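In response to the reviewer comment on reproducibility (Comment 2.3), we provide here a single inverse folding case reported in full, input and output, so that an independent group could reproduce the run without further information from us. The structure tokens appear first.
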């Protein structure tokens, strides 16, 4: 019996319907994406991987298959996002529009998950971030910055735990995220990055045992 993931499946169907009815040329202009009108293809990038997206069927071609959560994130950007230059500031989730409403969920799903996954494993975190790729930051005990999509940067800051204090973390977003995604989308984005990190971490640990 096939298990249906309604949490992702139904939203995906809803956004696919909107995408099919939308104007891909308008999407490309609003999101500053290359658009091949003849082939009806949009070019997008996610965590350093390049993809092409066809309209109206949303066939995605790239180096690896996308999860439903990743497909939804791309659709959300195409349907409602706007490209904007970063102003140089990095914002906490709380500082984003509607971030206060979803802060508790984001803290549990993303910040706490990040802290307790790597709070006592900085070497593993470093190996993972070098594979993404990401760039090291001087902030915190173990800080890294990566691009979710071109121009949209996320900082992962980790303070290591010890015998007296548990690990602590913060996740910051470049200030142009407010034009690209809603706060609810960014909780999904946090899950996507952390899932990718988990996969890379398992690969690194497997190679270390080989």
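Designed residues, in position order:
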């Amino acid at each position: 019996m096939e298990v249906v993931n309604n949490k992702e499946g139904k939203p995906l169907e809803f956004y696919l319907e909107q995408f099919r009815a939308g104007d891909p040329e308008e999407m490309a202009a609003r999101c500053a994406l290359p658009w091949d009108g003849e082939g009806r293809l949009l070019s997008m990038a996610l965590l350093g991987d390049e993809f092409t997206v066809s309209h109206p069927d949303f066939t995605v071609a790239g180096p690896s298959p996308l999860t439903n959560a990743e497909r939804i994130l791309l659709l959300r950007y195409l349907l409602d996002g706007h490209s904007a230059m970063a102003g140089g500031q990095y914002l906490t989730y709380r500082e984003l529009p509607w971030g206060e409403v979803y802060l508790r969920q984001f803290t549990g799903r993303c910040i706490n998950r990040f802290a307790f996954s790597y709070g006592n494993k900085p070497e593993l975190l470093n190996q993972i971030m070098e594979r993404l790729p990401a760039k090291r930051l001087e902030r915190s005990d173990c800080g890294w910055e990566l691009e979710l999509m071109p121009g949209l940067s996320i900082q992962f800051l980790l303070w290591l735990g010890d015998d007296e204090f548990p690990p602590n973390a913060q996740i910051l977003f470049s200030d142009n995220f407010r034009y690209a995604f809603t706060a609810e989308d960014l909780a999904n984005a946090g899950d996507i990055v952390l899932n990718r990190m988990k996969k890379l971490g398992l690969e690194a640990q497997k190679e270390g045992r080989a």
